[in-house]
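Hey,
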Amino acid sequence: MTDTALRGGSQKPIEPAGLDDVPGWFWDHDRHSFDWFLGRQEKKGVTGDLLEMGAYLGRSAIVIGEHLQPGEAFTVCDLFDSDAPDEENSEEMAVSYRKTLTRSAFEANYLSFHDELPEIIQAPTSVLAGGRIPAGAFRFIHIDASHLYEHVVGDLQVARVALQEQGVVVLDDYRSQHTPGVAAATWGAVFNHGLKPIMLTECKFYGTWGDPEPFQRELLDRVDLAVGCHLSTETLNGQQVLRMTGTSEGIQPFRGSRHQERLSEVAAERSAQESRQAIRSAQDEATLDLAARRARAAEARRPLNVAKRAARDLLPPVVTSAIRRARRG
């Protein structure tokens, strides 16, 4: 998957046929885990709002939006193409996102899969503090905004206030080499501020300020878990933590976008045109080859050339060589 969000210089967002066509870093195990946690809440009758801090071009937001229930709100907070509030954050964005991240690209991607946009707050996630969003109203929060320690600490404080008692918070890049600030903030919240880990994948931390045991019990019992997802357990300071590894076996692909059928037809027509062009090229090449062979055969049948071949075949080699030298001299 590449980061390219725009086609050429036209600034026109690419229309995705499927979720994999949306640029971003959201792998199968985490997509399956989002579906698992959100789906579990829905099956148990849990309602509440949804929040994503940091959306990039919408790959994870599209999956979260799939689980929006009647009466719930989905809020996305991201700077998109706005200026960062401080120099360090601006440098981080310049390295990773500035060339491709635009609000229009996010909106085009999201509307390829859903009829309505979420509520979008185009601002740093720090604006969510201080009552901007209602306390205790959210059942699921995904944090994937700034990787700077102080910013992640602030995002976690917002999440702690905003989540319901058994709400789930997910942090991206909790263990990547280039994001030590996320790791420090995440484990600081675990050891100092009551955040309880439920499960770890390669890229994301899943936790709650409530009781992780009911989630972990159902995961270990493999309730609705894909066959390729393998779980192991660790103990950290007396707390059980699950780790998910394995393959994508049994993880169902995400549904296609509203463009899928039309884009499939376009791709099929393009493939048919290429096949027809290949056939025409082969036919043209065969016609030219046949013409060349016929021309060589006609040349060989000319009387002078017949005589030359006869002399070459019938005269002794010494005589033939003498004749050739005489012609050259």
